[in-house]
Amino acid sequence: MNIPIILLVLLSITALSIPIIHILFGKKGISYIRYLTAISLSISLLLLFGSLIGLISQESTLPHLLRTDLLGSFFGFIVILVSLFVVISSFDYVKDHSNEAIYYSLLLFTSIGMLLLSFAIDLLLIFVAWELMSLPTFILAGFNKQDKLSNEGAVKFFVLGALSSGILLYGISLIFGLVGSTNLYVIADNLASLNSNLIPLVMFATIALLAGLGLKLSIVPFHMWIPDTYQGSPTPISALLSAATKKAGFAAAIRIFAVIFPLFSFDLSFALAIVAVITMSLGNLAALTQKSITRLLAYSSIAQAGYLLIGLVVLPYSDLGLIGLLYHSLNHAILQATAFIAAALVRLKTSSTDLTSYQGLSKIMPITSFCLAISLLGLAGIPPLNGFWSKLVLFGAAVDGGYAWLAFIGLINSAISVAYYLLVIKRMYMDEPKTVSNIIEPMSFKSVLLFATIVIIITGLFPNLIYDLSQEITNSFFNQ
Amino acid sequence: MSTEINYLIPWLVFAIPILGALLMPIVARIGEKIRDYYAIFITLISAILCASMLPIALAGETFHHQVMWISALDITAGVLADPLSILMSNIVGWLSFSIMVYSMGYMKGENNMTRYWFLMVFFIGSMQLIIFSDNFLQLFFGWEGVGLCSYGLISFWNKDHKKDYVGTVGKKAWGIPLAYSPTHAGSKAFLMTRVGDASFLIGILTLFYFSGTFDFMELSKSHTWAVELAKSGLLIPVALFIFGGAIGKSAQFPLQEWLPDAMAGPTSVSALIHAATMVKAGVFLIARIGPIFVTAVENISLIMPFFEFVAWIGAITAFLAASQAMVSNELKKVLAYSTVSQIGFMMLAFGVAGLTSNFIVGYVAGFFHLTSHAIFKASLFMGAGAIIHQTHTKYLNEMGGLRKQMRLTFIAMTIGAASLAGIPLLSGFWSKDAILASILGVESSFTLIALYGLASITAIMTAFYSFRMIGMIFFGKKSRHLSKLEKSSGKHIHEAPVLMYAPYVILAILTLALGFTGPIYEGFLANSLGHHLEYAVGMEIHEHVFSINLIAVSTSILAVLVGCGSGYLFYINGKLNPIETVKNIPGLLTLQKFFVNRWYINSLYYIVFINGSLKLSQLIHKHVEVGILDKLNTVVPKFSIILSTLGGKFDKYIVDGTATRIANFNILISRNVRKIQTGITEQYVFFFALGIILLTLLLFG
User: Fold this and answer.
1) Are A44 and A78 in contact (CB under 8 A)?
2) Domain count, chain A
């Protein structure tokens, strides 16, 4: 079975049929649309899961464009899982919004883009998938038309998104000019025999690729849009941006850099290490003084990107690098999605993202507070939650790859980050609520939050589950 | 102990409280009474299980049971029941039980008791997990668990009423207030111990990197890791990083500042966590890893600097904290400083163990002091809780003359304080004497004299503040506060309810008992710990026979005479007036102020770390997030021009497309959203360009 092609067809038919259903059935059709979206994503998720555990064997029909391997299925699984979370929690979040139908359609198009990005091995296809992923999110970010914050965030996102696409394309064109191909593996072959005078151009192309990808990877200093956009967008969309599109970006980065990285005659690792240090330190320090939960999570997300970068830094030196990167990608996606979705529910019910509205939340919204607390503890890397293990592997990878100082800085950063995560938990559990009336927590949110929380705890208690999988994916990725 | 079921006992010791705690909210639904008894019942079961393992400890045997945990990294989980862990678990188990009973009385009528019981029981489970862990990683889990519970319990009175504050409100040192709300104190404790934890983690991960194992038994069997560590010069740093964890958890210098403020929690919590058990976790860790490091190195001189460091930290902390205990006006804080100081003594003993020719002497002395201190300090704390409960004040100068009205408490606390002071034939006398005697075995004469001197001076101060405390509570005239209290309530102050005094009276009796059998207990410790070190760890042990060291004994008796004598004259007999004396002798007032202000260490930390990092965060907020408003607007166009030469694509997007959008957008912003404005797109683009330049410099540079 060629998973990406099948899913591409399935999801695009669904996405395209949504506006038609809306026209045919009008308001009544909305509930069909919701379930249709959720079901098609669930089917995709099952297929990807099947291929991950080896139940479904994959075959490749377009070997030059798509590589149907475990790595692709893994990232596909992450992005589709997060999309599903986002869709289910949107049932209540965008309920009765005038453009609800198109919201789901756009979400599906983004998912397709992310999915293709997980499998693509041709720079042009990567670019197309990149745009397919990005364009709908610009609209989704500005979905609340009346909200000035939402508009502001969306415009900034769009301006910088366009800039990064341009730079990405510039890098791709440079590479094509140098080696005459856009297929990554052909590029790798040709790079080896490249005239050494042209190396500076290769370096420059690399920088352009990195800067272009960097926008979605949320690495400093390409991160500027993140706090504004995460705060302005509908909060489930922030979950999507932080947990899914970032991971798809990392998938592309792994594809590109794992193949051509080892061939570079210059040291990209050191540059990446410096960027990683800046990213995690700035994210954590800036998060300390935030007064709104979405901005706090936005900076936390930037800091986490810094940890993930460690994996890229040591990619050529240690297998643990890729293992840790995969492991933390999945964990971080689940943790961050849970935190954002919990924040979305609070915003929906109290129409505020201010940290002050979290005072005594545990008494008003017990389930939401519990799930948020667990996910924050996970992000902080408190054992035995899953975030602890994957950070451990990443720091271990840094040591193994000869970047012990990077692990050290990462540890210090981890220690700092506890302060602001704890602050939110303290507000929820220690402070007195402003009102005492209970708030009903909708079923859709509760089911997503509880499911994710259980996953966080179980994968924390049995770290083997994901670690072994990451190891297997890494082995098969390097041995093909 | 060979049948399968017996292997389960150590697992159950920590599993029952941890799982039991998780059921607490459900049990609480049934009824409040049931919930309270349930919490105590779980603690009792765990304690009985600990006691059932005592025969193993008596025989000096060890058993070790493992299961696979993380197969990919070949990490196992397991329990290690040896004399050290079994003795420690009994101390923890039975003290917890008595304090849980006390809690029933002390916390009567409080709200949120489900949270209290949950945290207390979960704490006990985590502590037992630390004790029985056979590897660093599992131990670290428990380590974080007790930290979390400690945080929750210190800030238990989370409404931050002024009466729950610790310290005197309004007083400042270097502009930093010296009084903290419970939640502030909780966060302070958590963050400060996290510093130690980070160091601990660095230590064990580096160790893992070199040895490939977290397992204590494997570490003590294979010695190649130590050789390699020593070769790369990391042996001492790794040991010190691990010791960093102990420094944080046991509140040793320079991370001692959190413990005094941790007294903001309920007294029962202070008694259990911040006096008797958790703060001993650091000491326990050193007892656990000390022998491993000693056996791992070929020549003990390789690891000597580590032990020397431990000994010095212990001695300095003991001195520093005792000096502050002499001037504190809060009953619980006197006890807190005294705890820090006594733990310093234990650290000193374990450090000295590695500096002498016979490891076991210091080792036994340290563990002996741990036992005796845990018992009498828990008793003192519970007594103090009862007094605060009955007199409605925590300040010593608002007490006085209570010995007739609270006779039982008076007797129990006097026994405890006398033991703390080191009055002969009480448990504290024997253990302190053992520590002093062990110092005399140190080979380097400078270290010997310095450490011995510090320890002796600290012993004098200890005796002094113990008597000062007893004098100020029970002797002298009744304070105005107490007379007013009696008048307004119309009743005399009387003994606390039986549920409260029973536990501390029993512990006082135990202190007496341990005092009478001191040398026997010491002999028993030397026997079983020595047997264990020799056969399980593989250390060379010389027979340690109990003997009275004349120098040590005379020093400690002299210290008691000087310390207790002056304490007696000032506070019990009333011959000398402490306030007048301080005024009359020049320099004493300054010194007193210096001690009261905690040597200014606390203020220094606040100024450097708290205010410093807030400043940094604000700076980042101001300059990076909001942007460097005025300067950039002229720079951005210039950069746009440079960038526009990069290529046609770029040109199209930046100059044509975006520029108009930016312009329109800026107008939009300035017109509509001035209030919510958080950043300017032009600057974002500028930073984007800056990023590319940074990467270029990094790669080409």
Assistant:
1) no
2) 1
Residue to substitute from A134, A146, A158, A159, interface B, most B β-carbons within 10 A: A159
Interface membership of A228 toward B (CB under 8 Å): yes
User: What is the value of pTM for the model shown?
Assistant: 0.65
Could you say which of A156, A166, A204 has the minimum Cβ distance to residue B653? A166
* Count of beta carbons in the 10 Å neighbourhood of residue B660: 10
Range of the domain at A457: 267-480
Nearest CA in chain A to B112: A430
Query: Three-state DSSP class for B381?
Result: helix
Place of tokens 């849980």: B100
User: Domain count of chain B?
Assistant: 2
- Nearest residue in A to B625, CA atom: A224
For residue B71, list chain A residues with Cβ-Cβ distance below 8 A. Answer: 464, 468
Helix (H, G, I), strand (E, B) or coil at A38: helix
Establish if B556 belongs to a structural domain.
Answer: yes
Q: List all residues of chain A from 296 to 325 with a beta carbon under 8 Å from chain B.
A: none
Q: Position of tokens 């990405």?
A: A168
What amino acid is encoded at B336 in this protein? A
Tokens 């010491």, located at residue: B522
Its ipTM equals: 0.71
What are φ and ψ of residue B411, in 5° steps?
A: -65, -45
Q: What is the pLDDT of residues A431-476, one digit of tens each?
A: 888 777 778 888 889 999 999 999 999 999 888 889 999 999 999 8
Q: Are residue B375 and residue B476 in the same domain, yes or no?
A: yes
User: Has residue A81 been placed in a domain?
Assistant: no
Q: Please, which residues have CB within 8 angstroms of residue B517's CB and are 6 or more apart in sequence?
A: none
CB pairs under 8 A between A and B: 164
User: Is residue A55 in some structural domain?
Assistant: no
Q: Chain B contact for A32, CB < 8 A? A: no
Interface check for B159 against chain A (CB to CB < 8 A): the answer is yes
DSSP A326-353: HHHHHHHHHHHHHHHHHHHHHHHHHS--
Backbone Cα Rg of chain A: 21
Write out pLDDT tens, residues B223-255: 888 888 888 888 889 999 999 999 999 988 888
A289 vs B618, B681, B694: nearest CB: B618
Q: Are strands B75-81 and B176-177 parallel, antiparallel or unpaired?
A: unpaired
